Amino acid sequence: ELVNNFCSRELTSYEQIFEGAELAKLDKTERRYAWIKRRMRTNEEIWQIFPTSWLVPYRLCIQFCKKTRKQLEGILDNMKEKPDVATLLMALQRTLEFEDELAEKFGGGTQSREIGNEIEEIGRQSNSQSASDIRKKYEKKLAAHQVSENEEKDENKDLSAPGAGFNFHGIISSCFEPHLTVYTELEEKTLMENLEKLVQEETWDVEEGSQNNVLSSSMQLFLIIKRSLKRCSALTKSQTLYNLFKVFQRVLKAYATRLFAKLPKGGTGIVAAATGMDGQIKTSDRDQRVICYIVNSAEYCHKTSGELAESVAKIIDTQYADQVDMSEVQDEFSAVITKSLVTLVQGLETKFDAEMAAMTRVPWGTLESVGDQSGYVNGINMILSSSIPALGSLLSPIYFQFFLDKLASSVGPRFYMNIFKCKQISETGAQQMLLDTQAVKTILLEIPSLGRQTSGAAGYSKFLSREMSKAEALLKVILSPVDSVADTYRALLPEGTPMEFQRILELKGLKKSDQQSILDDFNKGSSTISQPSGAAAPGSQAMPQAPSATTVPAMSNPASAGFIASREDVLTRAAALGRGAATTGFKRFLALTEAAKDRKDGPFRKLFNA
Fold first, then answer.
1. Residues in domain Vps53 N-terminal (predicted)?
2. 189: pLDDT confidence band, cut at 50, 70 and 90?
3. What pTM value is reported for the model?
4. Of 64, 176, 268, 470, which is least surrounded by CB within 10 A?
5. Phi-psi bin for 391: left (phi > 0), alpha (psi -120 to 50), beta?
6. Could you tell me what percent of the chain has a pLDDT over 70?
7. Which CATH number fits domain 352-526+553-563: 3.30.160.160, 1.10.357.70, 3.10.450.50, 3.30.70.1400?
């Protein structure tokens, strides 16, 4: 009680001085700490008359901190306008320094030494660290820990008295926390301005020989974010740091939007519609490289944003740690990756347009002999030879595999449908087209080797062969005699439709009058083969079936779909692409497997009985 009364009298003049209009200002905060330091130096010898166990300087500082906090709270609460950010941060910085000095003088814990190290780890390439680097890192951590323990022992030697372990950290500075909104607003403004500048200055190219083929704006953005995180974590690890983390989320989402916007778009408007280019994406060789850089940059951002969240979770106050999550941001970058790869495929498809058109202009009905592969096949080969090597060198194996799967699921059906766009096809013409089809399949099967990425070639080859086999089957139907064409069509293309069959008859050059009898026989045969599962009751109306979301063709041989070995393989490949990577081809396969569950036997059924 005596010591407390003494401390109160010592601080009476302090309260009077700093409650006055002249010094009761935020920009005078540093003078408060200068006053108490001067007071302690001046009275150090006088206070020696008190027993050491009374801890007079220590108790005086605690009372000083409490009174200072109360006065600063009043100043901050009574401000009519938002405080100047520079003044606010300067006052907070000086307060933190003063708290550190008190903690060092009287004990009460030390600030974490690992914060800077945690932040520095953000964005570093994991494969760039050798074993010696990792060993040095942990040796450094161990040494720092031992130094910290020794310092604590030294500090506590003379502080065995009750209350000597008081924690000065935050005793004053925590009053600034509710007023740091202006600081996070300034950080967000600065980060967004830097983002715009980085995007404007981005060359959308990567230096030759670069190991990761990532755009410089991606790496620079995370360097700026790391500096912002360092600044904030030096001031506070509470609500303000969490608010800044949410700023990081918004900035990274904005960057994902900029990457998305850079992708080539399909043609729109009257001119595009008139020229048949509506919605089609045209990509040059440079466009293809840029798309690959965007894929790699989005992957880098996906990975590094996760590391950023981990670092923030380690240094932020525990009450906020569970709320630190970057999954939404990572989903944004996954969507960019998926859209980029789909755009690559669409751009390549557009390059095939001229060759597909050339295929329909070949006089298939008047060919006299079968020769070498046609010119359009050579054109397809040239397109792939000029594009695939660059894509293979720039894309990682998992994304190149995704690209291959999308390409296979696109080119096969397109080639099949393009046959129907041709005019009459004679027997010789069908033989020539069959030769061309096999040549195209061979060219497409060489894509993994062309891209020097053969790790997933087996699955791609099976998938592509299955897709291209439909075109081969169609040509075999066209080659079949008229009297057996219906049976051949049903055998080779059991998922076919009467309309498609009629078009085949037209391709064979049959007249309308000759077609009708064959169509009648075909329709009768189809009706006897496929009866409805349940007959409607007399007088009742059958309910119309809603169209399914995904059309799944029937398969004469389910084993041919074995390009994906198991459900685990399916899930692994889908998960590796992130949440945003579910594609039409993958949905189609899922629909196929769902339909297969109802089958009583066959290889697909075994997947679900395992």
1. 1-202
2. very high
3. 0.72
4. 268
5. alpha
6. 73
7. 1.10.357.70
